[in-house]
Every structure is written in structure tokens, then in C-alpha cells.
Amino acid sequence: MLGVTEPHSRWTPSPLVGEGRGGGATKAPKVQMIRYLTIRLVSMAVMIVLSTLIVFLIATQVPADPILAQLGDLQAADAALVASYRARWGLDLPIWQQYLLFLQGLTRGDFGISISTQRPVLDDIRQYAPATIELATVSFILALIISIPLGVFAAVRRDTWIDHVARFVSLIGVSAPTFWLAFIVLAVFYGGLQIAPGPGRLDVTSLSPPKWSGLFLIDSAIAGQWEIFRDAAAHLVLPSVVLAASILGLLTRTVRASMLEALSQDYVRVARAKGMRETAIVVWHALPNALVPVVTLGGIAYAILLTGAVMTETIFSWPGLGRYTFRSAIALDFPGIMGITVIVAIVYLFVNLIVDLSYALIDPRVVQR
After folding, report:
1. Which of 72, 125, 290, 330 is the 20 to 30 A CA-CA neighbour of 274?
2. Is it the case that residue 17 has pLDDT exceeding 50?
3. What are the helix and strand counts (H, E) for the chain?
């Protein structure tokens, strides 16, 4: 398996360029890392521009008119008013000129003005992003807490009942639609059993904590408002479980397959032959190597949670980026859609950059390729 090495190999010095020339062994990797990082940043910028171009071309082909969708029947009948609105958002210009204006604003950090909210798109994103970050982070941590031990035990106890449970959980997590699972848990635990709070981030009678980060758990803890902290944590349970389930199956299957591969390696057989305890072999030898593929999958999964929680946030009335994306699409809010596209592209590319850099730190040969 790629990235699986014997434990002693991590201490073996790599034959780097300039080794033994008085510091050349340390300078060469730094130069290679800087070059590697520069190439990655340039490619990120190019991919962001390409993603905006694709979405821009698709959005401009929608037959509906975003201006008429925002105006009432009487206002839409006023040709002068419609023309002024088109001029305000530059919709009276050729498509190529509209796109160039968007790129010019993007270089200044200006995502434009939302047609539906009449506010800068960047301000809307700053308002809705903390809720999504809080929900995605809690969901990701929950998925890791469940998937890693479950995948490890399934591999160690292969073909036993716990392995069958892990396979069943993986199957449910991969095949169950997120919107269906969200409706089920909301209907059962909120509507039926009434043991969970309703949609939203807080109860309607609760006040938001003083804003510091926008994350209610952190802000309420800093302010010492533990009643609000408990309320916010309770409202996070159902949506975080639904989102965690969407990646739980994939993570569990990956951990199980990686552990099976690691346990079949020669260094594990040698450790067993030396009489080492099975727990120590699994925890200190097999598990670190088995988690290498999870680095890549975990980064992608977290990016998916940050950018793909549209249905979950809509069903649970969660005021995050997913709900904002849904409302922008329904309202044909062209600037809002473009702003979300840029944010999604940046999140995916940044997460992939972090994953690549972590691989480069784990295996310096990645930088030399």
C-alpha cells in the first residue's frame, strides 16, 4: 500500500541532494519545498479562475431573468426600473465584459452585491460561514471518533460480529440519502419522541452569545453563558449526526481496508514473532501506517461537509452557507451564486493543499517528484 512503511524506515536518512556538503542537505529540501508550494499556489489560482468561468457560463445560460425574479409584477412592468436594475448589476453588458468585471472585483476581494439581500456577498458569507464551520467541524470530529475505532476493530476481529456491524454501518452511511436521514431523525427524535430540540441553532427564547468567533459553542464558553452553551450543543446533535453519517461509511471502510493491509505486512509478523503484545502491534505499528490514506480522505470529507450541507441546513433551518446557497439558487441571485462558487473552490483547493503538504512532510520524496 502506498505510504505504508516499516516502523524502522522512518528513521533511515534519505539520500538528499547535497548530503555531506556542510548544510546542503538542509538547504535543498527547503528550496524544493518552496518551489513545490509556489507551484501549488499558482495552480490553485488557475483552478479558481477556471471554476468561476464554468459556473459563470452555466449561470448565464439559465433562461430565467434574475431581475424579474426579484421584482413584483407592477415593478417588472416598468421598463425604466428594470433597465436601471440591469445597469446596477451590469447585466446589460456583454457576457465577456460581465465576467471581466467580476474578476476585477475578485482581485480586490469584492464579490459583488447580492440581488436578493441587497448586501455585499462577502458580508453575507461572513454572516453565514460560522454556522457551517461549527456544524461541519462537530460532524467531522464525530465521524472520526466513530469510524476509526470501528474500522480498527473490524480489521482486527475480521469476520466476527463487530466486522459485520462495521460493514452494515458503512452500507447505511454510503447508501442512505442525507435528506431522507435528516427527515427521519427530525420526525422521530423531535416530532415523535420529543427528546431533541427543534430546528435552528438556539431555542426561540434564547439570545445569541456575544459574537467573538461566530461559533456559538466557543462564544458562549468564553462569555461563561453555560445555559446557552448547552442549548447550542443540544441543537447540534441531530444535524451533526446526519452529516457525520454521510461520511462515516466511507471513513470506516477505508480504515478497515488500510488496517487489513497493514496487519499483513512483514514488520507485523516480525513483531508477533518477537512476542510483542497484539495491542501494542495494532496501536504502535499497524495503526499509524493505516491512517496515512485517511489523511487524504479526511481532508476531502471535511471539505465536503463545509460545502455540501445544503439539504441538511435547509431541513434543520441551520443559518449556514448551505442554506444561503439554496436560497440564492432559488432566487436566481447571480452574485450570491458566484460568491459561493469561489468560496467552495477555495475550500476544496486549500484542503487539498494542506493534505499535499502533510504528505510532503511525511514523505519528502513527494516534493522531489
Report:
1. 290
2. no
3. 18, 0
